[in-house]
Amino acid sequence: xxxxxxxxxxxxxxxxxxxxxxxxxxxxxxxxxxxxxxxxxxxxxxxxxxxxxxxxxxxxxxxxxxxxxxxxxxxxxxxxxxxxxxxxxxxxxxxxxxxxxxxxxxxxxxxxxxxxxxxxxxxxxxxxxxxxxxxxxxxxxxxxxxxxxxxxxxxxxxxxxxxxxxxxxxxxxxxxxxxxxxxxxxxxxxxxxxxxxxxxxxxxxxxxxxxxxxxxxxxxxxxxxxxxxxxxxxxxxxxxxxxxxxxxxxxxxxxxxxxxxxxxxxxxxxxxxxxxxxxxxxxxxxxxxxxxxxxxxxxxxxxxxxxxxxxxxxxxxxxxxxxxxxxxxxxxxxxxxxxxxxxxxxxxxxxxxxxxxxxxxxxxxxxxxxxxxxxxxxxxxxxxxxxxxxxxxxxx
Length: 396
Description:
20% of the residues are buried. The chain is elongated. By secondary structure, it is α+β, with helices and mostly antiparallel strands. A hairpin with a 2-residue loop joins strand 4 and strand 5. It has helices spanning 7-11, 19-33, 42-58, 61-69, 94-104, 134-139, 280-285, 351-363, 370-380, 382-395, and strands at residues 126-132, 141-152, 168-169, 178-183, 186-191, 200-201, 214-225, 234-237, 253-259, 266-268, 271-278, 287-292, 297-302, 311-314, 337-343. The protein contains ten helices and 15 strands. Among the domains are: 7-104, DnaJ domain (Helix Hairpins), CATH 1.10.287; 126-167 and 202-259, Urease metallochaperone UreE, N-terminal domain (HSP40/DNAj peptide-binding domain), CATH 2.60.260; 266-343, Sandwich (HSP40/DNAj peptide-binding domain). Helix 2 packs antiparallel against helix 3 (42-58) and helix 9 crosses helix 10.
């Protein structure tokens, strides 16, 4: 069973102390043990939490009444952990406690924190499209870019107030930026409906931005496109988005690349592919052929009897890999180029070519499809013959 803490003893006041006496005692102790005055002192921090917990209960008439009578969440054993572990089963509003503490060191006397400066907000992220050539995507480039965005108003410098005036503290939330609704120990905090969480309101708005603190503008940049991007790559430019509000950091700019196709190379992941035509004699006898690379040409050796669709690879001759660390010397790792050989079959033959092919066909004996019929006859038996007959009848 949890032991009920003596909050009166914690604050050093009598059980019949008035609300003003409790508040006065709390403020005195809070000044003494506040973390700002005792940096790094864990005992002072623990004592400060006890004082804050005691004041949260005894400073609230409803909670104090339940505490004195031992009812509700202050009943013995009530709630998880007996009702008195940590802050017990009541709602300890840390933000409201911070409001009161700030008053101890020069804040308002109303019991609420007055924000003297609007809350800083990060700027919005932006997305832009950039079109580059295939060569620029391979080698990298610096390209100009125009990005529409909201910039800081030059007239009010982002305050939203007319020059010579300043935003005033919101009368509804008293600068907190939130409204608390509820009864007793349960409450719900929502952004203030009047200032929308800013903590301040603008009574005399800026004539240029009409109180928003921002104007529509076009930002002109020169952006560096890293080598190795592909069509649809997404590049993040930190801090190049819309400026922050009230001193907040700027957002980021994301570039979506559109790469024009190459007449020779086709992108296949981290690699490139090129179709290399071979004549029939080259495929039969083998040959040495010149092929294009990203930096010029190279010679490939074609093996005799190369079939249509055979692929030969040149390692490390492809595009740079985005984010790929160098193997040596810090250079960027590269992909490969795949050369796919295709047999160039002429659509029409001259008489001389037909004569040469006739002579060539006499030197190749046998039917290359004979194995298909032999295997089919073994597997299908009579059924195979029937199928052949049907095919022949269909042709007739």
